[in-house]
Amino acid sequence: MTYPWQPAPARPPRAEYQPSREPLGHHSDLRVLRGAYRWQRRTATLAALGYFTLFLVLSASAPGVMMRTVADGIPAGLLLALVQLPVTWLAIALYEHTARRHVDPLADRIRKVAELDARRGAVR
């Protein structure tokens, strides 16, 4: 526009996408999925790190307990350190179990709904 009194050039009408139906997906589904994934992470993390933190606290604050022999001259500290590996495996197994049971079905359902919405949009 060169002069302020000149009219603005006419813009072509913009075609807006207006679906005839509401999309199938809901934001609440994503919220539920995030919550399930958050619970899964916290459970597995607390299982592994909680045990390791307990081991560190016992090592620092109760050296007498850690030096006590448990069986055949093996100190309790060494035994608790060796148990860390199975606890880590347990945390991994717990993570996998909660993924298969809670998170994966939610993600699959959301994926299917998104595919249906995409197909519905492509048909138009």
UniProtKB/TrEMBL annotation:
- Ranges annotated as spanning the membrane: 43-62, 74-95
Q: So which domain of life are we looking at?
A: Bacteria
Record keywords: Membrane, Transmembrane, Transmembrane helix
Region annotated Disordered, chain positions: 1-24
Presence of the UniProt keyword Ribosomal protein in the record: no
Q: Which Pfam families match?
A: DUF485
Composition bias, Pro residues: 1-12
Q: What is this protein called?
A: DUF485 domain-containing protein
Organism this protein belongs to:
Streptomyces yokosukanensis
